[in-house]
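Input structure tokens:
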């Protein structure tokens, strides 16, 4: 027997018991004739006391950091207790010990505040995983996994595995491909998601499916992405959107409860995509705080229907005498609460902030809504007090607030204002890590128009159904765009998808849709995306065929498992929640992968490199 207890287990009530522990040496502290060792395992740390009698033994076999040590002794009450450690009331007075294995000096300290940099810790990930901070994250990940499985199991979902060596699934990214030795010149694709398989399972009658599954997307790894990541992937038959929303807000609430003991009893808020874009400037709004966007000027042409309702703008169109506003496509503003007393230095700093290349604006206009009801702005020359008030009112500003205004090209300005809102929310402490706000974003456009290719693309994926009452619009119209400038006038630009995203604190944590399940509509969709009937058959013949054998109405969703864990763990980085992640260039630093392969492997695959 290597151990009788773990290093996190012993308490004062165990005093005088003889026990055996095994673990890793975290620290060795010698005080004259006695030595203290902190012994660590997955469960905690226990202090070992080596008395005088063992010191000669220790001298002939000195202990070093990360040695694997087994020690037998008596549990004893400590004279100086450590309230920070669950085992801090006791220590193990060692009677005998054995070094089970030695360790070379680790490249960084295996402690909460380690001295190791990112790259070094990635290279020695197996050592980093010994650290408490990383271990806690993996424990949380496992707790999320268990909560999800329990909930889904209780609701009759079946975990069914689907293959990894498949044919392309279009989720909008590039595929990773795998050459087939047995079929020279042919390739498998790794799944970007199990999308088509889960739909086929619905046709097969497994009406509630789930899988916590790896997905592979060969994307440029900006921000916090991984080329392989995990989804909680689900699909249900005989459901409408409402059924899905209810089932899966239940799932997330259960995860909150089991993992963080949060009772999220309120109904999850819902917002249309248009509303989200108009009032928050993006499709995954952080609704923990207000500071909504005010549209000060038309046209906001991509939101034609809403624009029509908002004829009255605060600054009017093209007549203010202030060229920046007059020449801009869009003018957007937010009212930042309680910041009217910002100094020149502070407003200058904000101006620099919006001019950074990532934000890309030319400048920033502000209006200070003073507590005494007067207004002061950076454009006093162009706007009298009455006009300033009119603009400020449009943003909902109160005395004491600071109105920030951006002007420029519509898309960029919207994005920039949205970023500015998030930044101000962060600076004012309105984005609290311990607050969780869920939101369903609904009614996405089914299609987006790709100007560079002059064609429609699916906003979600090609299997997403239009809203039931718009199926006829889709079937009844030819997707040809004709004059590309006029794509907004094409009936397809108004078709809404039967799709939904779940947003948590400004992050998209899940998304899905009610699917197309009729061959005719699916063919129309492929045609709309520019596929010839032959191409559609070649790529998706199996699915089109399956739809002819009694496909039930169905829909589903997939949650980004890594991201969900990171948010619940209060971290920005999904990497921290993955046991063996890749770095930002998609490399596994530990394995040093990707790497080249042997000539023999190339020969077997009948592949010759043609590096450019
Ligand atoms: N397969 C989709 C995705 O990965 C999710 C879904 O539609 O269920 O985004």
């Amino acid at each position: 027997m290597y151990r009788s207890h773990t290093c996190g287990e012993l308490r004062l009530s165990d005093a005088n018991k003889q026990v055996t522990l095994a673990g890793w040496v975290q620290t060795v502290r010698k005080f004259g004739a006695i030595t203290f060792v902190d012994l660590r395992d997955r469960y905690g740390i226990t202090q070992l006391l080596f008395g005088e009698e063992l010191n000669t033994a220790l001298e002939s076999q000195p202990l070093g950091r990360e040695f694997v040590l087994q020690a037998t002794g008596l549990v004893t009450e400590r004279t100086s207790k450590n309230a920070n450690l669950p085992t801090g009331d006791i220590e193990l007075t060692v009677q005998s010990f054995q070094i089970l294995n030695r360790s070379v000096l680790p490249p960084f300290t295996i402690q909460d505040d380690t001295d190791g940099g990112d790259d070094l810790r990635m290279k020695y990930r197996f050592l980093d995983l010994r650290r408490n901070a990383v271990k806690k994250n993996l424990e949380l990940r496992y707790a999320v996994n268990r909560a999800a499985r329990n909930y889904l199991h209780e609701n009759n979902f079946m975990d069914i595995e689907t293959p990894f060596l498949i044919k392309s699934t279009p989720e909008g990214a590039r595929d990773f491909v795998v050459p087939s030795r047995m079929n020279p010149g042919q390739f498998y694709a790794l799944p970007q998601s199990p999308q088509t398989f889960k739909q086929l399972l619905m046709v097969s009658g497994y009406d509630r499916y789930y899988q916590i599954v790896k997905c592979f997307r060969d994307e440029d790894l900006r921000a916090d992405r991984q080329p392989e990541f995990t989804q909680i992937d689900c699909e249900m038959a005989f459901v409408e959107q409402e059924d899905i929303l209810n089932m899966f807000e239940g799932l997330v609430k259960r995860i909150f409860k089991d993992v963080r003991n949060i009772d999220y009893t309120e109904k999850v808020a819902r917002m249309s995509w248009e509303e989200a874009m108009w009032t928050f400037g993006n499709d995954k709004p952080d609704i923990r705080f207000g500071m909504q966007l005010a549209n000060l000027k038309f046209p906001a042409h991509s939101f034609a229907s809403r624009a029509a309702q908002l004829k009255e703008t605060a600054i009017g169109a093209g007549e203010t005498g202030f060229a920046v506003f007059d020449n801009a496509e869009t003018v957007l503003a937010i009212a930042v609460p309680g910041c009217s007393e910002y100094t020149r230095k502070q407003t200058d700093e904000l101006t620099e902030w919006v001019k950074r290349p990532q934000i890309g604006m030319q400048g920033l206009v502000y209006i200070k809504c003073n507590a005494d009801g007067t207004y002061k702005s950076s454009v006093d020359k162009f706007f009298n007090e009455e006009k300033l008030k009119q603009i400020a009112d449009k943003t909902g500003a109160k005395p004491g607030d600071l109105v920030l205004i951006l002007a420029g090209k519509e898309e960029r300005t919207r994005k920039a204002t949205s970023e500015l809102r998030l930044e101000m929310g962060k600076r004012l402490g309105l984005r609290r890590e311990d607050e969780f706000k869920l939101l369903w974003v609904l009614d996405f456009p089914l299609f987006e128009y790709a100007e560079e290719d002059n064609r429609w693309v699916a906003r979600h994926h090609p299997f997403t159904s239009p809203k039931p009452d718009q199926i006829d619009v889709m079937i009844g119209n030819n997707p040809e765009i004709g004059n590309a400038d006029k794509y907004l006038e094409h009936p397809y630009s108004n078709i809404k998808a039967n799709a939904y995203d779940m947003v948590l604190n400004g992050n998209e944590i899940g998304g899905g849709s009610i699917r197309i399940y009729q061959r005719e509509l699916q063919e129309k969709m492929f045609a709309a995306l520019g596929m010839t009937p032959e191409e559609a058959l070649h790529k998706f013949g199996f699915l089109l065929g399956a739809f002819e054998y009694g496909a039930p109405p169905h829909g589903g969703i997939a949650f980004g498992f890594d991201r969900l864990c990171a948010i619940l763990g209060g971290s920005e980085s999904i990497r921290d929640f993955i046991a063996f992640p890749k770095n930002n260039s998609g490399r596994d630093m530990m394995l040093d992968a990707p790497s080249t392969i042997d000539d023999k492997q190339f020969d077997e695959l009948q592949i010759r490199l043609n590096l450019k």
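The chain has four domains: 12-101, 133-266+559-605, 289-431, 445-496+518-547. Residues 132-154 form the longest helix (23 residues).
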